[in-house]
Specification:
Helices cover 45% and strands 0% of the residues. The chain contains four helices and no strands.
Length: 60
Amino acid sequence: MWALGGVWRVPALCRFLPGPLKHPLYHLIARNRYRIFGRYDACMIPDDHVKSRFLPTGWG
């Protein structure tokens, strides 16, 4: 996350928190994940532009 820069550096700093602080924070985010990130009825099917950003897997 640190390499992504911007606001993603904040969660990267959580690795330095002690477990007794980190675990409740994780569970708080997990319980509220739909409220924070939204909920979708189905997984996204990537279009060609998004597909080009993934590495080929060699499975097909």
